[in-house]
Amino acid sequence: MQDEQNIFINSALEEGFKLYFSNKDKDYSLDFNRFVCSVVRMLIMIYGENIIKSYEDKNIQLFDDTLTKYGYDATEANNFKIIFEGFYKLDLRHQKKAIKKKNKYFNLVQKYLIDMMVKRNQEEKIGSLEMSEFYNLLFTVNSKDFYRKSTAVLMAYNPYEIDEYAKKQGIVVG
């Protein structure tokens, strides 16, 4: 866990950003592809440089303003931060145990991210290549990446749920 004074918004976001910055040149490293880092990568894909700048400047207001940039509800943005922190804390507890349990926040975090991407797409049309890149960052049983697929099976109560939700929201084309 981090020192309370140096945490940006919450421990989950802090850990995700730290992993992102220390591994962004290592595309295939495990840390760069861990769930908390992938969440940050999806946020960057949705919102661009302002997400990075908000972390670098430790500017919580900029972060919050950026999450609502495309009309995403402020209450939902706050709920996302709470749910992501819930995921992180539960994951830390599970890591200490020999028998791993499902994480009830795992799919919820991804649903929030999908909803954010849908809002962005409504405001400014996103190309199919970028939409495909976003989809490939999701942890779903249908992922082409073995690590993402196995993580989805390990953590999600329903490993098919995110794939179905993404398709229903128009994230996957074709």
Describe the protein in words.
The protein is mainly alpha-helical. The chain is 66% helix and 0% strand. It has helices at residues 11-23, 30-33, 35-47, 49-56, 60-67, 74-95, 106-123, 128-137, 146-155, 161-168. The relative contact order is 0.12.
What's a concise summary of this model?
This protein is mainly α and 174 residues long.
Could you tell me the strand content as a percent range? under 5%
Indicate the mean pLDDT.
Answer: 94
Report how far the terminal alpha carbons are from each other: 42 Å
The oligomeric state of the chains shown is: single chain
Question: How does the helix and strand content classify structurally?
Answer: mainly alpha
* Radius of gyration from the alpha-carbon trace, in angstroms: 15 Å
- Count of DSSP-assigned helices: 10
**Low-pLDDT regions:** none
Question: What is the H-and-E element order?
Answer: HHHHHHHHHH
Count every beta strand, where a strand is a DSSP E run of 2 or more residues.
Answer: 0
Main beta sheet: none
Per the principal axes of the C-alpha atoms, what is the gross shape? globular
Helix content estimate? 55-70%
List the helices and strands and how they pair.
Blueprint: H1 11-23, H2 30-33, H3 35-47, H4 49-56, H5 60-67, H6 74-95, H7 106-123, H8 128-137, H9 146-155, H10 161-168
Main traits of this protein?
about 170 residues, mainly alpha
